[in-house]
């Protein structure tokens, strides 16, 4: 029996808040439940990797050497300072501390040639780590654009997905023909503006051409998707629409991790 894959996940942050009802004034690093359940659904062992304190004898390199792959979670905005811009509004200031921690993880996983999957914010961090930039707010900076985030209905807002010809996603899902376009959820107000170096587009939103997925052109598996496949894994709120099943993406990622481990 094969040993289960060890998949690292980046941590989400709640920074110190003196008004928070629990852990008052403390910084929390946490994972979102449906993400880890999605990964575990295919037999992976999930290891949330905390950001080590300064001068710690345990480094991120120490963790990465034990892992088979990395999944970057969704969550807070990236700081525009991470891609050389000034926040257009204070509320778009993002989380620079988390940015630096996740970009450091990406660099280490790339150096060790271990697969990386970025989801929502995770895709945006990947793009910036490879030299790209983001729209700080799609509706403000891109005209015309569709609504990609509605707080009231959160993961119950969907749009169509156009998969690029010859892409990895096309190999996983086939050509879009009689079945019509796939539906994916959309929970983001930021998105890829300038694509990073050595990245190629895998899918777009056909209504405004916002990049919805990309991959790396090198020999290491790197895939970023702007939607949340782990949310769609739990239920299909639009049974009349061909929503995109996230399992082929997850299985491709884990299969690549397995092959990399066998080497």
Description of the molecule:
This protein is an alpha/beta fold and 263 residues long. The chain has a single domain, classed as Class I glutamine amidotransferase (GATase) domain (Rossmann fold). The protein is 27% helix and 20% strand. It has 8 helices and 13 strands. It has helices at residues 33-40, 60-64, 96-111, 121-129, 138-141, 168-173, 229-234, 247-262, and strands spanning 6-9, 12-14, 28-30, 45-48, 69-72, 116-119, 134-135, 158-163, 182-185, 191-192, 199-204, 211-216, 222-225. The protein has a 9-stranded mixed β-sheet with strand order 4-1-5-6-13-12-11-8-9, with helices on both faces. The protein has a two-stranded antiparallel ribbon with strand order 2-3. It has a two-stranded antiparallel ribbon with strand order 7-10. Helix 3 (96-111) crosses helix 4 (121-129). It is globular. The mean pLDDT is 90.
Q: Short description, anyone?
A:
The chain is of the alpha/beta class and 263 residues long.
Write the layout of secondary structure elements.
Elements: E1 6-9, E2 12-14, E3 28-30, H1 33-40, E4 45-48, H2 60-64, E5 69-72, H3 96-111, E6 116-119, H4 121-129, E7 134-135, H5 138-141, E8 158-163, H6 168-173, E9 182-185, E10 191-192, E11 199-204, E12 211-216, E13 222-225, H7 229-234, H8 247-262
Parallel strand pairs: 1-4, 1-5, 5-6, 6-13
Antiparallel strand pairs: 2-3, 7-10, 8-9, 8-11, 11-12, 12-13
């Amino acid at each position: 029996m094969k040993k289960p894959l060890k998949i690292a996940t980046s941590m989400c942050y709640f920074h110190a808040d003196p008004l928070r009802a629990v852990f008052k004034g403390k910084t929390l690093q946490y994972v979102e439940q449906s993400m880890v359940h999605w990964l575990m659904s295919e037999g992976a062992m999930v290891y949330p990797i905390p950001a080590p304190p300064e001068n710690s004898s345990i480094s991120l390199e120490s963790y990465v050497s034990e892992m088979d792959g990395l999944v970057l979670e969704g969550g807070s905005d990236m700081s525009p300072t991470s891609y050389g811009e000034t926040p257009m509004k204070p509320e778009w200031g993002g989380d620079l501390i988390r940015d630096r921690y996740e970009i450091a993880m990406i660099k280490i996983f790339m150096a060790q040639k271990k697969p990386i999957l970025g989801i929502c914010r995770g895709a945006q961090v990947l793009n910036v780590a490879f030299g790209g930039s983001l729209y700080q707010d799609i509706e403000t900076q891109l005209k015309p654009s569709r609504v990609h985030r509605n707080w009231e209905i959160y993961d119950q807002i969907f749009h169509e997905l156009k998969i690029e010809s010859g892409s990895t996603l096309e190999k996983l899902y086939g050509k879009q023909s009689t079945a019509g376009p796939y539906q994916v959820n959309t929970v983001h107000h930021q998105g890829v503006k300038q694509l990073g170096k050595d990245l190629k587009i895998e899918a777009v939103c056909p209504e405004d051409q916002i990049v919805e997925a990309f991959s790396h052109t090198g020999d290491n598996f790197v895939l970023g998707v702007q939607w949340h496949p782990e949310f769609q894994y739990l239920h299909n709120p639009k049974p009349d629409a061909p929503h995109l099943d996230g399992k082929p993406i997850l299985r491709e990622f884990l299969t690549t991790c397995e092959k990399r481990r066998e080497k």
